[in-house]
Structures are given as C-alpha cells and as structure tokens.
Amino acid sequence: MSWKHISIARLEMCNFKRFYGMHTIDLSTDSSGTKPIILIGGDNGRGKTSMHEALNYALYEDDDLPGIATRPTYLKAVSDRLNRRALDEGAGQYYVSVMLRASDGTAERELTIRRDWEVNVPERRTIGSQLAISENGRRIDWIEENPAALQDFVRSVLPPRIAPFFFFDGERIQQFAEEREESRGMVEAIEDILHINVYKQLRADLKRYVVDYLEMNEIKGAEKDDFFKLQEDAERIEAGLDEKRDRQADVEREIEDFRGQRKRAEDELRRIASPHASQRDELLVERERIDKELEAAKTDVQRGFEPLPFLLAGQLLNSLEATLREEQRAITTPERLKELRIKVGTIEQRVFIAPNPVPPPHVVLSDAQATFYRNVFRVTADEVLQLGEAIQPRVRLHDIGDAERNRILARLASIRQQGSALRDAIDRRERLTNDLRDIETKLQSTSDDPYVAELIKKKQHVDEKLGRLETELTTLSTEIQRLEADLAGRQRQIEERQRTRAATTEAKKTIKLAQEARRVLDAFIRKLAPEKLRSLRDHFDEMYTRLRKPEDPVHSVEIDPETWSIILKDNKGRQLERRVFSAGMKEMYALSLLWGLSRASGRDLPIVIDTPVGRLDTTNRRSLFEKYLPNAGHQVIVLCTDTEVDVEWARRLAPHVSRQYRLDFDAASDSTVIRPGFFF
C-alpha cells in the first residue's frame, strides 16, 4: 500500500530517558491546515532530543536506526535510554508509542505503533523487545505469528532510509550539504523518496517470485512433450536462448549501475585530488597500461603450464637426457670400430713408434719398456673402447630407435626453452604486480584526504566487478549468436512440419509475460528518473531562491542524471564547491534539498526538527522562520530553546502555530514534564 499522507497524532513515552512514568503529548494540527507548526520548547537537557529519539525508537529497531549495526548494539542503545529512576525503583514498564493518521488517498486510517522493551531490572539492561500495531483501535493480528512482518508493515508506512530526511537534528542538518554524504548514502534514499526503488523492487520481485519460482517448481519438473525430436531441440535451444538473453539484460543493467558507481567514484577522486590532478591522470593512464601488460603476462604463464610436469622432474630430466646421449654415443657399428681403430693406431704411432715431439735423452724408454707400455696401451684401448670383435654391444632396456631418440632429445630441448619462457613470464608478472602496487600507492598519496583510499578501494572493487561482467557479457553475446544460428537451423528443418507452436504450458507463457514486464519496467525507470530529477531540481531551486541571501553566489542549479549529485553554479556558470560554504549557507542548502525531496516525492510526511536555528545569523534565521517553517509541510514539529524562538519570533509564528508546549523539570518526580504553553 502507498501511503500518500501521514501525520503524527500523539506520542506516548513510559520511562524513556528524561521522562519518568508515562507522558503523553497531543501533536495533531488544526483541521483547517493553515497552522502546520507545533512548538515544543525546553531548556537544554529537558528532553527535546528524548522526544525526537522516541519517535525513531517507536518506529524502528536494530539496523533501521542510525548508527545501529547489530541486535546487541540495539539492545545496548535501548538500555542507555531507560529512565534511571524507574530502574532504581524496579519499574516493570518501558515503552514508546506513536499514533499516526495515514491515508492512501481514499480513506484515512489511525495506526498506533507501540514498542515495549523487556528489561532485566537488576542488571539494568534490555533483553528483548515487542512490537504491537493497532489500526482504528483494533489490534492487527493477521501477522502476529510473524514479528518480522510487523516491522515490514511499519517500513511500508515510513521507510527507514527516508526517515532522516523528515526527522532531523537542526544542529547536524549541514551533513546533507556535504558532498561526501551525498556521494555515499543519499542516492538510495533519494530513490526511495522519489519512488524509483518501488519499480526497481517490482522488477526484482518479478524475477524472484514469478520467473525463478515457476522455473524451479513447474518448468524444471515438467515431463518432456511427446513430440518430434527436432521440435524438442528447437524448444531446448529457445529456452537456453531466452535464459542467455535475460542474463544478458541483467548483466547490462548491472554494468550500467557499476559504471554509474565508477563515475561517481572517479568524479569524487578528481574533486578531492584536484591539487595533484595532472599527476593522478598520468598515474591512471600508467595503471591502465600495466593492467593490460599484466593480463598478457598472466596469459603467458598459463600457456607455459604444459611442460610443467616435465620441469618438476628436475634432475630426472637431466639424467634421462644424459642416458639417451650416452646410449647414442655407445652404439657400436663396423664403421665405428674401424674409425676408432684408426684413431688408436694414430695415437700409438705418435706416442710409441715416432714420438712427436721427440723426448729428451734422459726420459727415452728402453726397447723392453717401450714394448711393455705399448702392449698395455693396446689392451686398455680394446677394453675401454670395446674394439674387440668378440665384445657385444651394451644391453638396453628399451627399443627406441635413432629417429625416436632424436625426437625425444629435441622435445627435451624444447621443454627447457619453454621452462625458460615460463620463468620469464612469472618474473614479468611479479614485476608488473609490484609496479601496479606502486602505482596504487602513489594514487593513494595524491591527496591528504583519507577518504581517497576508501574511494580507490571502492573503485577497484567496482572495476573488478565491471571486468568480470564485461567478460561475461562478451561470452553471452557469442553464445547467443551461436544459439540463434542453431535455432534458425532447427526452425528451417521443422518449418515444413509445423509453422507455429503455442507455449507448451501456462507457466512458460507467464514467464515470458513476466520477462517482458521487467523489460518494460527497465524502460519506465530510465524515463521516470529524469522526470523526477527535473521535479526535484525545480522544487529545490524554488525554496533555495527564497532562503538564499542576495550575496550568496549560487545562481543556478543542475542535477547529474547519472550520479544524482546537485551541482551549484555561479552567475558565470562555474561550479561551486559546497565545502567552502558557510554554516548558514549549508543549512539553507540542506533545508531546500529536504523541501524539494518532500515536494518531488508526492507524499505528505510530517517534519520534525530538533534545534532548528543552530549557529544561524539574523538574516538566515529570518529566512528560516518566515519562509521555510510555515511552508515546510502540513505538520512541522519544532523542538527548540527560548534563545532560538524568542518572544518576537513566537509572536510572528503564532498565525501558523496549532499547539505550544513547554518541557519543565519537576523536582518532586526528578523528571521532565510536558505542560501546555510556550516559554512566555
């Protein structure tokens, strides 16, 4: 259900922070709609922030609350907000309750949302919570068995991501004017407020609850049709083709989303790193070059894995080659024997018969000595070189021939070369990896802002995702082309037998309709977003024009359709950096943004402002009181001190004020009490 109009009728607190016991405050405005403001005044420490938090803690729990990440953290936060006197006295009730009047455009409903906390009083800690919802005085019981469904119902009334844009602390409102805040968490919240996420969620639900469900429970379990084999093939190919096309559309959408994230990160990097922009651009180009070379090196490493089992053999490989070469040399043939005998005869001639060079007289051998050594030489040569005709060739354990042996030796030489190439590729990969790491380090050091490192890490993650998705998209395109060609071939073959064929089951018809609806939603979102942006820009510009000082430099407003960033320009069309704005300018900007979001959303939601004035000067205060608060919404609850809304401003706001309350300290109960009337 879409709630078009919501207002806060009543707030009730029991033993919550400054409020001991039960306290109720009527927050309904006048029926005429001309007095939207409710003033609640109190000195510092009297409970203004307690009331602001009570609204949030009544509506949300766990990570729906700002700054809460886990259930234990939530229970600890609630424990810190229990009234101390009530704990000392052992009180049994601790709760907050808010009554809303909500309308869907036809009928108004009264919703009471109450959240009770179970407390271990002796240990002064919260151990559980319970949510109860009543509609028009009758408790909702159709989802009682599912507590999570109750919280989902509350989220449907007022989504937690948009609550900070309507329940906000005036002293912290300037965070909405920070460019970093806008680049981080604002986009999703803005999409929620402008209803764009509704259509994105519908698109996801069609995939999850229609397409995936039917494919899992009906299509995959259906028996094959008793039909011609060609027709079965065509149906199978068509189903695969539809699946690939659907995945292709999903991948294209994901790529578009990640490119938007990358652009936002790159824009933020360029903005933050502007003092070193030229160096950053060069580093980015160098990183891209190294990325390409690194991919090529990784490919070379993968190619070099083929001879890896041989290389791992190590010394065994060397032994094999040595053995083969030794066998090659040891093979004895008649020609080889004849050649060896000639060589041995040459040696015998030069050493024993006609020595060359001629030995000196004192070393000349006698005839007997020469004959003895000559015979020893002949016997040794015959044995070592196997010159005797009776000696048989050495026994081998294989029957490898000369050609096969040469091929093996050539292969071993090739493996050594490939091993060398693999080592070179690994070394190149390591060098490029180190170079890339140095580039990343330099990129991180190009700005003093620590947020740069976070942005670079985020961009690297996005780039990796994009790389995988783009690779998948290329693969999908190739597969789709192949499947289309296969399908065309099958259709030509069965054209003579049957020209048309209806869907075999209603489930397939439903799936096709759901996929078509998802494609239509994609087109609708692409068309809706620019229209919503124009509306947001016009409303923002309208309020900022009212609130700005004459000397403020902003003269025109633009909104980036990809990043949703609001770009402010001066009278010469130059972009202005909001980080140099004064506190007053930032607050006027933030209030204009919140007002523009409220108007562009098409929903009337209550505005709750805690400490609205902050450090505003007189001119900005006048703009806030005269131009913003009376026009901020149909219900504007202002929590303030007497220094923020003094006698004069209370008198000027009186025509727009429905109710006035004062938060006083009651010494008897050691508690804040709510009394009618303002300070004066």
Topology:
Elements: E1 5-16, E2 19-26, E3 37-42, H1 48-59, H2 71-79, H3 84-88, E4 95-103, E5 108-120, E6 125-135, E7 138-139, H4 147-157, E8 167-169, H5 179-193, H6 196-219, H7 229-272, H8 277-303, H9 308-312, H10 315-330, H11 334-353, H12 367-385, H13 402-444, H14 451-494, H15 506-547, E9 556-559, E10 566-569, H16 583-601, E11 607-610, H17 618-628, E12 636-640, H18 647-653, E13 657-666, E14 671-676
Parallel strand pairs: 3-12, 3-13, 8-11, 11-12
Antiparallel strand pairs: 1-2, 1-4, 4-5, 5-6, 6-7, 9-10, 13-14
Helix pairs in contact: 6-15, 7-14, 8-13, 10-13, 11-12, 15-16
Q: Would you summarize the structure shown here?
A:
This protein has 680 residues and is an alpha/beta fold.
Q: CATH superfamily membership of the domain at 5-195 and 529-676, which one?
A: P-loop containing nucleotide triphosphate hydrolases
Question: How much of the polypeptide forms β-strand, as a percent range?
Answer: 5-15%
End-to-end Cα distance, whole Å, is 44 Å
Number of helices: 18
Please mark out the parts with pLDDT under 50 across 5 or more consecutive residues, or reply none.
220-226, 274-278, 390-395, 498-504
Q: Class of the domain at 5-195 and 529-676 in CATH? A: Alpha Beta
Overall body shape: elongated
Specify the structural class.
alpha/beta
- What does the average pLDDT come to? 78
CATH topology of the domain at 5-195 and 529-676: Rossmann fold
C-alpha Rg, in Å? 43 Å
The largest β sheet comes out as: 6 strands, antiparallel
